[in-house]
Amino acid sequence: MVVFAGQGDARRSMSLLWRADRPEQRGRRPGPRPGLSVDAIVTAAITVADEDGMAALSMRAVGERLGRTAMALYTYVPGKSELLDLMYDAVHAELPTEYDDTGNWRTGLTDWARDRLEFHLRHPWVLQVSQARPVLGPHEYAGLDTLVRLLNATGLEAQMLRRLVGTLSHFVRGCAGTVAEARQAAAVTGESDEEWWFARTALLGEVAPDFADRYPSLTAMETGSAPQSPAPAPASGEEAVPYLEREARETFDVGLGVLLDGIEAAVRRTTAP
After folding, report:
1. d(CA 45, CA 264)
2. Statement: 10-92 belongs to CATH 3.40.50.620
3. pLDDT tens column, 3-43
4. What is the predicted pLDDT for the residue at 229?
């Protein structure tokens, strides 16, 4: 499910995002109980999305968590579209904005990417918000500014930095999406990754006896890959990490290294005499 941000009233949304017009600062009218605010509504909405997913998000669900009716929320937030913008920007405040950029730029970018990955896994619903139309909130901009500052240490020109911002962001989101889906798959289907893969790959020899001839490059890659070590048994009270999540995390580590190698090569090209 893809959700597009910025579907509410533009002026109202931007005013709320940048706190230029806080309803709780207006004169109160008799009736509503005190204590409700934009921040309280946003916090409750984030909790709903974290616990139950984007599909469960509604003004009614948020109101119930706050012990209010949905109608009570509209004094502070015009609707669900504006609320989504506020939620998206608010969770980005969790992301660090300070990294060590005095040494090797690779270290800062590596830490940034790992922090970003874990952020998405804490709030997987964020991955459903399309990047086609950004929210344009202060915390989203702070995260963007942080990444640009880390990339500035490479000395690459602005147009290249712009493209690298997109490349790194899409890479991290893609890996995070795979991990998040791996965590959901077993609960939704009632079948573990290992059970799913074994049931189907065991049948390939039967339904496609010429598989190796039809897909020689893929077969050679799989045959030449180092055998996967079995996952260590989880400690008491811990859950085993799904197979697909382990694969996605390894892909993240290897892919990030290759991306940084590519940036390093670009730096060498621009600094070569």
Report:
1. 41
2. no
3. 999 999 999 999 999 988 655 444 445 554 557 999 999 99
4. 47
Between CA 105 and CA 161 the distance in angstroms is: 13
Token pair for 87: 């939620």
Q: Which residues contact 56 (CB under 8 A, 6 or more apart)?
A: 48, 49
3 phi and psi angles, rounded to 5 deg: -120, 135
CA distances from 18 to 54, 85, 87, 141 (A): 23, 11, 13, 11
Domains of the chain, by residue range, sit at 10-92, 95-222+241-271
61-81 pLDDT, tens digit each: 999 999 999 999 999 999 999
138, 126, 144, 146: which is closest to 13 by C-alpha?
A: 138
- Find all residues with CB under 8 Å of 164, minimum gap 6, and list them: 151, 156, 263
3-state SS, one letter per residue, for 197-256: HHHHHHHHHHHCCCHHHHCHHHHHHHHHCCCCCCCCCCCCCCCCCCHHHHHHHHHHHHHH
What region does 125 belong to: left with phi over 0, alpha with psi -120 to 50, or beta? Answer: alpha
Joined tokens for residue 48 = 């709903």
- In CATH terms, the superfamily for domain 95-222+241-271 is Tetracycline Repressor, domain 2 (1.10.357.10)
Token reading at 126: 């964020």
Structure token pair of residue 54: 């984007």
- Contacts of 259 by beta carbon, 8 Å cutoff, 6+ apart: 167, 168, 171
